[in-house]
Amino acid sequence: MVMVERVVQALPEMEPEDFKVLRALELEMRRHDWVPFDRLLERTGLDEKELGYRLSRLDRWDMVVRTRRQTVGYLGYQLRPEGYDALALRALVDQGVLEGLGPEIGVGKEADVYLGISPKGAQLAVKFNRIGRTSYTKIKRYREYVKDKRHISWLYVNRLTAEREFEALLHLYPEGVSVPRPVAQNRHVLVMERFEGRELAETRVENPEAVLNRVLEEYEHALEVGVVHGDLSQFNIVVEGDDVLLIDWAHWVEVSHPSARELVERDVRNVCDYFRRKYGVHRHPREFFENSG
C-alpha cells in the first residue's frame, strides 16, 4: 500500500494523544537525530505506560521508528514520513482546507501529488515534498537555504521547500503568471487548485514553436514580477494545447539575487535546448534577452 494511503486509513483511528506524541517528536527533531524517550515524557506530559502505548500504536502505523539502545546509547525515536503526513493532513482538515484525498496523480524524485477534495467539493492538487527520499546525504548541499544550518532534518528541508514554493505562487498567481493557484500550505504539504494538462516531457505538442513562445512569455512575466524559477525544464512545464503552466517553484530566487542572471540563462537554455532536440525548433537563448531587454 502507498505511504499516503496508509496514513489516510489510520487517521480515523488516531486519538489526540497520538498527535501529541507526533508533535513532540516533530519539535524535538530540531535538536536530536534520535529523540530520547525521557524527552518525550517531558514534552508530552504522559506517563511511561501511556507514552509506551502511544509509541506502539504509532509504530504499528509506521509513523515512528525506534533505535536500539546500543546504537546511540539510549532509547530514541524518530518521526517517519508517514507521521509527518498525518500531522499535515490533520491540520489541513482542521483548517477546513481538505476533506478527502483521492488517487495519486503525479510522482517524482522529490514529491508525490494526490488529488484532494475541498469541503465544497472543489478538486485540489496536494503535493507532499519528499526531498531526501533518494539521497538524504545530499540534503544539505541540495538546498542553498539550509546550507548554514548545523543540524538539518528532512522534516525541516521539506517544510521549508513547501513554504518557499507557496511564497513564490503567492507572488506570481495574483499577477497573472501562468502558475497553479495556491490554496494552503502546512509543513511539507502544498495545496493548489488542480490543474489540467500533461508534463511537457511526457507528451508531444502539435505546435512546438507556439508552445515555446508561451513558455518564454510566461517566464518573462515571472521576471517582471521579480521571480526567477531557477530550475526550469521540460519536467516542470505542464501543457494543454498551446497553453502552458509553470510548476515546481521551490528553487526560486528574487531577480536581485547574485546568481539570478546565471539561473535565468540556465533556465532559458534548458527550454530552448529541449525544443531544438525534440522538435527541431531553433531559438538561441540570446534572443530571449534581446527581446526582454
Please explain how this structure is put together.
With 293 residues, this protein is an alpha+beta fold. It folds into three domains: 3-82, Winged helix-like DNA-binding domain superfamily/Winged helix DNA-binding domain (Arc Repressor Mutant, subunit A, Orthogonal Bundle); 95-193, Phosphorylase Kinase, domain 1, CATH 3.30.200.20; 198-292, Orthogonal Bundle (Transferase(Phosphotransferase), domain 1), CATH 1.10.510. The chain is 44% helix and 19% strand. The chain has eleven helices and 13 strands. The protein has helices at 3-10, 16-28, 37-44, 48-60, 69-72, 81-94, 139-142, 154-172, 208-225, 260-279, 285-292, and strands spanning 35-36, 64-67, 76-79, 100-107, 111-117, 123-129, 182-186, 189-193, 198-199, 227-228, 237-240, 243-246, 253-254. The chain has a five-stranded antiparallel sheet with strand order 4-5-6-8-7, with helices on both faces. Helix 2 crosses helix 6. The model has no long low-confidence stretch (mean pLDDT 92).
